[in-house]
Amino acid sequence: MKTLIAAYSGVLRGTGSSILSALQDIFSITWLNRSKVEKQLQVISVLQWVLSFLVLGVACSAILMYTFCTDCWLIAVLYFTWLVFDWNTPKKGGRRSQWVRNWAVWRYFRDYFPIQLVKTHNLLTTRNYIFGYHPHGIMGLGAFCNFSTEATEVSKKFPGIRPYLATLAGNFRMPVLREYLMSGGICPVNRDTIDYLLSKNGSGNAIIIVVGGAAESLSSMPGKNAVTLRNRKGFVKLALRHGADLVPIYSFGENEVYKQVIFEEGSWGRWVQKKFQKYIGFAPCIFHGRGLFSSDTWGLVPYSKPITTVVGEPITIPKLEHPTQQDIDLYHAMYMEALVKLFDKHKTKFGLPETEVLEVN
């Protein structure tokens, strides 16, 4: 009898160990799956923004035009009526939504790369600012995540400062896309909008301008740190006219997330790109990232490379209603010097060698 009880106890102990082992296996599998699910959510969150950036405006325009030819034509009429009355809203800073800026999808977006915002100096809420963002990269993903969402807590790092990321005015002529952009605090990069925000919207405004624009995007490639700035002086003139302080920003890693076919100067490809840039405002790039399900395939999903956006020290700018060319050149030179110093001070912290030089074109 004692022998049977001992044997039974041994079986129970064995069964208990087996059950415990099985439970551990289940939990480890669950954890693994959760990790994979989270990574896929990150990929999807990035892809939805990339597709929105590339095709949302055109797709919604086509759908709206088609709706005119269906029984739902009244919906299209109502939206176009709304569009007419709301046409100038983007020029007045848009219609930002804290709810949209705090969507969980942006935290997945941030963690995919990951993206980090580094503050080096405090900003006074009694002043207005023009942030110069460098480099453009293919899509300016760091600029979008840091200043059009709250994923990196820009409002907590710079309390009392309202960031407005400026982009092509043509985007705000696209139905639905314009609403999506405005909800994040994105505005047109034109003189009317900037004049309004810096003169009629109080203080504490920060307009983020990707200074290099389309021209800079054409030279975007992994391993290259170059900015198009030497002849870009319009933002300095605007800063002087409104007495808005200039803040240089360098985003380490912005050029690493996509690979691009670079056309040589004088080639037919570069000729086409420059014509688009001149007449439409953007330059079409032939680029690729990774695939949706595998990093070993090509696709539109950017590569998951760290992007670290460093916000530099503000340069105090006087208010001059009619700045001379000499004034513009002086503060432009100060800005270029500040940007190079910012790059040199932080480059080794983010994986670049001490010998790396920022190329200013």
As residue ranges, the low-confidence spans are 1-16
Order of helices and strands: HHHHEEHHEHEHEHEHEEHEEEHE
User: What integer value in Å does the Rg equal?
Assistant: 25 Å
User: How many domains in all?
Assistant: 1
Silhouette: globular
Mean pLDDT: 89
Strand residues, percent: 5-15%
Largest sheet: 7 strands, mixed
What's the number of extended β-strand segments? 12
What is the CA-CA span between the terminal residues? 92 Å
Helicity range: 40-55%
Strand order, main sheet: write it out.
Answer: 1-11-7-2-5-3-4
Structural class: alpha/beta
What is the overall number of helices? Answer: 12
Fill in the keyword field for this structure.
single chain; 361 residues; seven-stranded mixed sheet
Report on the architecture of this protein.
With 361 residues, the protein is an alpha/beta fold. The chain has one domain. 46% of the residues lie in helices and 14% in strands. It contains twelve helices and twelve strands. The strands form three sheets. A seven-stranded mixed β-sheet has the order 1-11-7-2-5-3-4, sandwiched between helices. A three-stranded antiparallel β-sheet has the order 8-9-10, with no helix packed on it. β9 and β10 form a beta hairpin. The longest helix is centred in the N-terminal third of the chain and has 66 residues. It is globular, with a radius of gyration of 25 Å. It starts with a helix and ends with a strand. Its EC number is 2.3.1.-. InterPro entries: DAGAT.
